[in-house]
Every structure is written in C-alpha cells, then in structure tokens.
Amino acid sequence: MAGHKNRLPRLSLPLTKLKSHYDVIVVGSGYGASIAASRLARAGKRVCILERGEERWPGEYPEDTLKCAAEVQFNGEHVHEGKRTGLYEIHKNKDQWAFVACGLGGTSLLNANTALKPDPRIWDDKVWPEEFAQDKKLLDQSFQHAIDMLQPAPYPQDWPVLQKLSTLETQAMGAGVHDKFVRAPIAVHFKDAYNPAGVFQKASTLTGNDTTGINDWSKNSTLMNYIPDAWNHGAEIFTCCNVVRVEKAKNKSNQPGPYVVYFEWQDPAREAFLHEHKSSIVPMFISADVVVLGAGALGSSEILLRSKLHGLKASDQVGKHFSGNGDFLAFSYNGETPVYGVSMGDEDPKKFEHKVGPVITGLIDYRDAPNVMDGYVVEEGAIPAQAAFFLRSIYQVMSENSSKSTKTAQDLSFQEKIGRNVREWSSYLAGVYRGAMANTQTFLIMSHDDARGELQLQDDRIRIHWPGVGSSRSFSRLDALVEPLAEAVRGTYVRNPLTVATDDAIVTVHPIGGCGIGRTAADGVINHKGQVFTGQGDEVYEGLYVMDGAVMPISLGVNPFLTISGLAERACTLLTRDRGWTINYDPAVNPIDFKKPRFPIPYNESEANPEAYAWAQTLAKSALHEVGQTEGDVRGLIVAEPFPDDISDSSSDSDSENAPKPSRVLPSIFSPWGKSSEKEKDDDKKKTGVSFTELLRGHLSTVILTEDFDTAYNQARAADSTMSVTLSLSTGPIEDFLKRTDHRARIVGTVSCRALSDEPMMIETGVFMVYTATDDEPADECAILYKMILLCPTGERYRFEGRKPIIAGDILEGWIKPSRILVSVFKIEDGVEKIVGRGKLGEDDDFFSQISSLRGDSTSFASNFDAIKKFGAAVFETKVKTYLPFLNELQYPEDTPNRKTFARQRPTPEIFQVVSSDGFHSRLTRYKGKKGPVLLLHGASVSSEIFSTTLIPHNLCDFLLAQDYDVWLSDWRMSLHIKDTHRQSPIYGGARDHAAAIKIVLRETGCKNIQVIAHCVGSVTLWAGMLNGEVEGVGSLVSSQVATRPLITTANKIKQNMQLLPLFETVLRQEEFDCVTHSPSSSKTSSVSEHEDPNTPNVTTTSPSSGDPIRKVTLLDRAVDNVLRFVPMPQQEYCNNAVCHRSTFCFGLLWEHDKISKNFHDNLDEIMGSINIESLKGLVMGWCKKQTLMDVDGKDLVTEENLKRAFENVPVLFIHGAKNQVFIPESTLKSVQQLWNLLPKTNIIDDYKSMYRREVIPGYGHLDCIVGDRAYKDVYPYILEHLERNLATTGYATAHEE
Fold this sequence. Notes:
Elements: E1 21-27, H1 31-42, E2 47-50, H2 65-70, E3 72-75, E4 80-81, E5 88-91, E6 96-101, H3 130-134, H4 136-150, H5 163-174, E7 181-183, E8 193-194, E9 200-201, H6 226-232, E10 236-238, E11 241-248, E12 259-265, H7 268-276, E13 284-293, H8 296-309, E14 328-333, E15 362-365, E16 377-381, H9 385-400, H10 414-430, H11 435-438, E17 441-446, E18 454-458, E19 461-465, H12 475-487, E20 492-495, E21 506-508, E22 531-533, E23 540-546, H13 561-579, H14 605-608, H15 610-623, E24 646-648, E25 664-665, H16 678-687, E26 689-701, H17 709-718, E27 722-733, H18 734-739, E28 745-752, E29 761-772, E30 782-791, E31 797-805, H19 811-816, E32 821-829, E33 832-841, H20 847-852, E34 855-856, H21 861-883, E35 910-915, E36 921-927, E37 931-937, H22 945-948, H23 956-962, E38 965-971, H24 989-1005, E39 1010-1015, H25 1017-1027, E40 1034-1040, H26 1050-1057, H27 1060-1067, E41 1072-1074, H28 1115-1123, H29 1138-1147, H30 1158-1162, E42 1170-1172, H31 1173-1186, H32 1200-1207, E43 1212-1217, H33 1226-1236, H34 1244-1250, E44 1252-1257, H35 1264-1267, H36 1271-1274, ...
Parallel strand pairs: 1-2, 1-13, 2-10, 3-5, 6-21, 13-23, 37-38, 37-39, 39-40, 40-43, 43-44
Antiparallel strand pairs: 3-4, 5-6, 7-15, 8-9, 11-12, 12-13, 14-17, 14-20, 15-16, 16-17, 18-19, 22-23, 24-25, 26-27, 26-33, 26-34, 27-28, 28-29, 29-30, 30-31, 31-32, 32-33, 35-36, 36-38, 41-42
Helix pairs in contact: 1-6, 1-13, 4-13, 5-12, 16-21, 24-25
C-alpha cells in the first residue's frame, strides 16, 4: 500500500553522474526500451536509459483520488496542463484520445498485464517485410525470451473466486460462446518468489489497482524485471529526462559518437522554478554509437518528427499509420449478478470483503473469424476506484437512455424494477462497492481498425489527427456482438461512457504505430531490424533504432505489450548479431543487491573520452585545493574524491583494485520486506541531500577580454550578446556538505550563449563551492565559485569560471539583490585554452527564488524535511553572519590555528641602542648594504615589523635589501618592541627619538645626510622635528599617508567629538589603549616564545614580542570587544578579528581587507600593540584637531619659514592610499601644495617632478600601502624610484665624493 514501510531501491542516478558519451542510449523504459537496455547491457555495452518520468516503486503509487489527480497531466489542443512527469498522461484530440503512463517502467506500470500473442495470421499481412516469414523461428524465440522474463500465467484455479471472472464466464455461457472463454495469461505474481531478474516479488493482494499503479509488488512491470536487470548489468538510468530529438553528429574529430541525443531535464522542482521565472527548459545532450527509441508510439514518433524538422533525414511515413488497436469500452450496468469490479483504491485489502483481483483475469476470444481483421477479444476489467464516483452518474443516465438493451425498463418486472432502483440508490448511499456499481461488469475490447491515424507536431507537441475514426471501427457490429453478454446477466448494455467526457472522441489505452515497420522508406519508417530509414529506399541509419509500440504497421486485435516485447527481443538479437555482440540470456541466479550492480561494465574514462577526462582533471586541480588525489572517473563530479553519499557505481573500473571508483547515489537501501530499523532511518537522514536551481542571466563580451568586467559587460549589453545559465546544484549528504569547509556541490545544467555556440552547451563537468581565502590571499577574499567544462554539440569545449564576490555587511547584496557573477570563458583547442569571453551574470538573481526551488533527494518525507531544514538553517545562519557580521563570534589571537611564515635570508643584523634627549630608550637595527642608507620609521602601536614581517611574501625591508640598500629599522618609543612604549609621552617626543637615531646612522655611515621612509605617526613626528630644527641630516624623504596636515576622516572626527579619550583616561583610569586583546580562556602567561630573546629584533614570533606577560583580561576588555562588533564599517571591510576591531576603533580602518593576506590578518597580534594615552591624546585632540603639527608647548610648527628652511632642498615623495580611512587623501595634497609654493614660479613644472611628488595608490588604504600583499608591485616601485633618483645627493654617494 502507499504507506508501505519497506525501504525502496533507487536505480536512477543524479544527472551529475551523466557521461557525455555511451555505447548505447535507450530512450524510454517501457517494454521495448527496457528490453533493449537489458539485452544490450547483458552484451557488455555501456547503456544509458533516459526516462522522461519519475522513478516510483510499489508503495509510492497514489491510491486516493486527490493524490491521483495531482499526478494527471493533460495534453489539450492548445496547452499542456499538470506536471510533465505526472504518472497519468492524457492526450486530448478532436477525434482520438489516448491514455499513457509516464514513469520508470513506462505504460507497463499501468497496463492490465494481459500477455496475448496476436493471431498467427497477422504475420501473413503484406505490411510485414518478408524477413518475418522467412525466419519464424527467430520470432518464436523472441516471444519466448519475453515470456521467460515477464512470466505471464492465468489466475490460479485454487485462489479465491473472483466475481468479475465468474460473471464473465456466466455471460459467455448465456451468449452461447462458453467455448471461447479462457483465463487470460497475465503478468502478475501469485506467490512470493524471486523473478528471473533476481527481484523479490510478492503475491497479488487482488486489489484491482493495476491501472493506477499497484503497490503490492505483484505486478510484473518492466520495473520489476528488465529495468533492474539492465541496472544489474551496468546500465545507468536517468529519470525526468524528456528526449526531444536526435541528430547525426557533425563530422568532427573531437565528436565522440555518431548520434547526439537532446533531452530536457524535467525535474518537477526545477521545472516549476523555471516556469515561475518564465524561462523555457533548455535541452541538454549526450552522444552514443547506438540510439534506441523506445518512448512509445506517441513519444518515439514525436522525437522523429521533431528530429526531421531539425535536419534528420527520415521517411515521409513518420507519424502515419497510427492505430488505437481497435480499443472499445463497454459495460453491463446494474445486472442481477454481483461483479465487484471496482478496484480497492486506498482501501485495506485485508479488510476488503470481496476481492477484486487483477484488472483482467478472463477473456472471450472471438479471433476465429474468417477475416483476421474481424477478430477481437472481450476481457473483463476493474473500474479504478478514483473514477467510479464519476462514472456512477454517467452509467445511470446512459442506461436510462440506452436503446441497445433488449431488456429495457418497460420489459422489466415490478420486482426487477424495484431491485434495480434499490441497487442504484445503494451505490449513492453506501458507496461504489455496493448496489448498481457492484453489479456492473466492464468489457475491455481489443479489435482492429484501419490504422489511418496520423501523428503531427503542432506548437511543438504531438497531436493525433484521425477524422472519422469512430466510423472506421464498425462499432455497430461490436455492439451487436457484445450486447448479448450484458443481457445474459440482465444488465443494461452501456457503450463507452467516456464519450460523454470526450465529446464523442474515441479513447485508446493502446496507441500503436507512427514509426511502422516497412520494406522501404516508401511504406515504413524502420526496416524489420528496427533501423530507421534515411528517407531513400532501403538505406538506414546503422545505429538508430525504434523498439516499442510505434513499430506496429497495423492493429493487433489483442493487448499489444507481448507483441511489442517479442519484436524488441527480435530487434536486439539482430542488432547484436550484426555487431558480433553476444547476449547472455541466463536468468539471475542470486537475488539482486540494490546497493551495487553485480555485473558492472568496466570503464576507464581516460581511455574512453580522454579530452573530457583531461579537462575535468584540470578543473579539479584548479577548484579543489584540499584534494590531493586527482585521478579516476570524474564525470559530473570534477574530482575523483567521492562525495560521501557515494556508495557504489556500476562504472567502476574493476580491473584496478586501487583505482578510485565512480559512484552512484542510493538514498536508501532496499531490504526485501523488512521494516526499516531506527538505525537505517538515521542513516537515510544522513545520506539525504538537497538540490536547488539557479537561473543566471547576463551578458558576455567576446571583444573585451581583459579583467575589466564592467567594461566587458557594458559592451556585451550594447551588442545584445546575452548569456543564460540554468544550474541545478546537488549537495550530496547534507551532513557532509555542511562539514566541508568549501561546501562544494555538483553542478548540472546548460549554458546558452550565441556568441560561443549556436546550440545550447551542456555542463559536462561542474562544481559549485564557497571559496574562502587561503593564508596567502586577501583577508576578505570570500566568494562563490562556479567552475565548469562546457560541451558543445559539435564536440568543442569551453572552460567557464564564475566568481560571485561575497560582500560582508551588505544587506541588500545578501538578501535582496545579490552581487553579479564575474564570468570568464576560455576556449579549449588542442589541449590549450585561450580567453574568449568576459562578462557578468545574475541580472535578476535573488536569494528567495533560489530557496523556493529547494528539494530533498530521498524517498522519505521526513528525511527530506530534515535535510532541507538543516540546509536552510545553515544558509540562514551563514547569511546572517556574513551580512550581519556583528553577530559573528569574535576571533582572538589564540584562535589562529596556523601561522605561515616566509623565510628570509638577510645580512647579520647590527643592533644599536638609542637614547633620546628626554631619556627614552629605543633601538636601531641595521641590515648593511652598499646603497643608502635608508632609515625606516614606523607608526604608532606597531613596530619595525611592518617593514620586515615574514607574515607576507614580500616586505619593504627585503625589497630594499634586494636592491642592495643599507637598511636601518627604527623601533622608537611607540614600538611594541620597546618597553618605554608604556611610558606616558607627548606626541612630539617621537621627534627626539628620530633625531637621536639619525645621529647614530650618520655617525656609523659617515654620511652627511640620509634618506628616510616614514609612515603615519612616524612621518608626522619626523616632520615636526625637522620643522622645529631638532632633526637634521635628512636629505630625501618618503612620507606615507600624512605629513604637515593631519586631516582625519569623518568617522574619526565623530570619535574625536565624543570625547572618548578623556573618558578612558579620567573615568576608566586607563593609561594606554591596547589594540591587542585576548580570549578570556587564554592560558598563556607570556607573549614571547621561551626559545626567543625579546631583545632580538625582527625575529618573527607567534605573538607580540614585547616580552610583557599577557595582562589579565578584564570585564572592560570584554565590554570593549563586544561593543566594537557594532561599529559601522564600509562594505567589504567587516571581519570578526578582535584585534582588527580595536585597531580600527583607535585609529580608523588601517587597511583594505582585500589588500592584506589572511595570514597577516589572522596574526595581527604580532603587528599591533598599545599606545599610551598622552601620546594618543596629543595626536587626536591636539595635532589632528588643529590640523597641524605643534611642539610640546603647542606652538604651530608648520610655517612657511620652517618649511623653507627644512625642506627647500629635500626631495619629498608622498604616498597616500586612495581609500585611506585614517587620514584623508587631501591631507598629503595640502602638504605637497605647501611645498610647491616654495618653488620658483618660473620652473614649477619641472620642479614638481623632481622635488615634491605625490602618488595616490588606487584601492589601497593606510597601512596596507606597506604591508599589503601586492604592495611590492603597486607601491614599493614608487619608493624605489624616489630613492634611486636621489642617490646622487644623499647618502654614500655624497660621502664617498667628499
């Protein structure tokens, strides 16, 4: 029943497992298609089954009316209604309706199981090629192969009496044709046993639900035999894949197969998502050496008709000679004999009083007519419970108006009239299992028609055209022959009541023809082997076959499925015989293990499709840095490392014991008839994954190929060069997906871009991942990556790279209008790739529409709900933490798991102790070189480490040493390496440290003057000393970020006006502000490694090397740390680093996060330190507030006289980050303008270039101009140029001349 508790198998694979090429592609999964798949897989070929419907197993078929209604899809004259993978498909046409099934197993899921061979005289008709008559033995063997697998048998004599069966026998006797009554052979199990495919089936529970999907595992549909047999022999099955056309492959060397099959992936959730976004489903494609069309009479004809429109040459007979197989429906309504011919529906069979039985169990065979085309069979049937309520009223109306019954109301006795009325009322009051409906016999009649219907494409949908079909079947003759059967039980004969609902159109449940067998293309679509004619004579496509009901050239007069099966078996025999293949027909010896195929097909993609394999591996290496192993089958996965949901795969290479095995997804493990244990249920939840769909639209330029994505996008928009990408992403087991740091998922989908390919491209290999920075990359580097290999139908390949930056703190970007995806496309030719396109995607993308497409991949609602809940919760949490970053947990120095350093070879350092005129101790470190000397001055709360840190690959100290400069690093009183940093000092005091340091440099080098590089507070204190005359000997200067005019940002002005410094000093009694903070749980007692000397300079340690013990973490520290979470930050600059927060609070944002490496950012405690309150107050409340430099007495030092005296002959280079959040760029602009005013007006242009220059560095902030990951390329060259330019007048050049 629908609530069956057994764990169901899953044979179909996720589309991410689809390979680009197979030996054989089988379209459909009904009788013909499943036989082809089974037999060709048994021949050792790599088979792919593409089924347009869903995979459902017994226990999943709907039984109540509402659930059945939800599975109805209706093809009307102008529109399709319902979901395209609905189980019940109705084709409405003016003259002829058709009912077919849609699902893995095809119409075998819903047919009435009756296995009848056609009248032998059928084969004598001239429509059949002479090969059938010439080799009748082959035909007989083929039928027998089908019978051996399908195992039809009559209803057992020793089973419960079925009233509808016994009533039919009574009717046959009453009509004088008892000799024609037989129990029909039906494909139903009447005992618990393993079938020839090794699948365990149960005995029938006699529900009569066969035509709506039976849930008791008794029906021998192809899902029970041929399909699992194909899977067990290595076939790969993909559902929701609606094949639309086939074409002959273009003659290119890189095209792997002669046929290309285009299909639409009609996953219901994906289809609903695309429909909501008014986007059509773009076909995907794969190729094969052999293609077998087995999509049914309507489906295969539709595919060939559409293929013809797209250039495939085929016979003009495609779509013609369609037949409804002479189907005729009638009833004996409200007779005197109980029938119990209404199926049980969702009723419990154990509690059901009268067994219904399989839909058909008996028949009356009228096929002995002289003319074989006049023969027919009458079979009893069961009315689907879901339709019985609808039919009840129609029966009554039609019976009252019936002129066909010889026992009309006027002929009935009074007692019969009373009984008939009571029974009718009983059906209304007590339900369809009582009264008139319980006494109604169903007649299912298979006869002959003239097969003159024609299938046509209208609005790209298959339509049936058959004017006058009703008159072609001699219904009056059938009425006269069937009417006595109703009379025999005193029932009212009612001809097909469905004509009321179909506007008198004829309904068939056995559509056949449309691709009929013929001798040549003039009279058929395929030859006797099933090969499609090319449209000229008897020439055929060697690898294109049709094997299903479409091949019938005439009606059969019996249920057609056994004939379809026999002809398919015959075609497979001839196909394999022509190619020298061998089919093993031995039945399964062992029960099938749905965990893994017993006979997987060995497959090595590196040999089968080397180009695809090579580029998939390339993509793997570029996308997944964590994965060391990159060999193996990677189709649809990108890397051989299996996702944790992978259990087994029929595609594994059994020849290599240690080779990675490509795997298939089994959301559940089938265990025959045992209830799922709690452990199994838990395992199912763990294995359940989540999928969702994205539709990305945008523009791609093939003209602008630089990384200027904005320009490329604008050019593409102007040229209307569009790109559309439809992606479906699969996480694999949700638990493992959430554990993976990169959250990678598989991608499947299509890319449409006419600038690259006239036809849509398929994503051959793809991965989605959330990218976060490695230690060497920018600290804020976080993005969603899309890496894919695109395959064109012509065999050409492109590599697609998409990068969607994640902008922390941008609420609109996170929730309402996500950022665009930056796209780069590379064409792959002869193993080499070149850039061919740049652009942007995501013009109408939004978070909520993606969430709406979420779905689980388990058969269990509970498992799916659990997986979606976990995924949704994780996404929501991530969104909140990314776009509301103040909610993140703070990162402290103790939380940094790894510290990466870059080894440096430097000259032996020389250490010089420096004492200023006011008694402060500082330190100089020299790395001796031949040019210079150059003195480097750091800013506040840092140290000379900003110039020499080994946390970045390239620092300024080593950059200058590489140019042979004599480098001097000063750790003055504001250095975190100096103990005196904790002493209170006026801000001007730094000038005295510089004066003392420069004297030592001049003394040791013998130079008259030197060059200086000064940053931030080191720069302003140097300028103050030079303007005040206290600092001498500077011959050339590089000032970083600030000089004479300390103009601060608005944010810093707000903090300045809030009087925070007096609050810290007087109220909170703080003597310094420490930019470094620690976790409350920190157990470290010293910030210096026990193996390191705190007095040794420039030795990178794992923490600040001041030598001071880590002070106790106070309540104030915790309060400050948590309050600083909420300080507003520019977009892209949010982080959770507590040291970064404190530094920003104290000075302003010191760097653009995209300019510093993650390794540097994670170890800021080695770079940052504290600043004493007096110095900070002098800087903020003094110099910055007055926007000038002052001495200790508050005297303004920035005067024209001082400037002229100190800088008239000193070349100065100002370096300023364009995005500086401490001192605005106008600060150095005013300083350089003051110096320009010193120059003679007559020579001002030349002097601008030689004396006083200013460089604004785009994209940089403050300290990142020194410690930025790319500063050695973007900033250092300006510094070097200035130093080289002024070597002649400073340093050793001057000293040596003297």
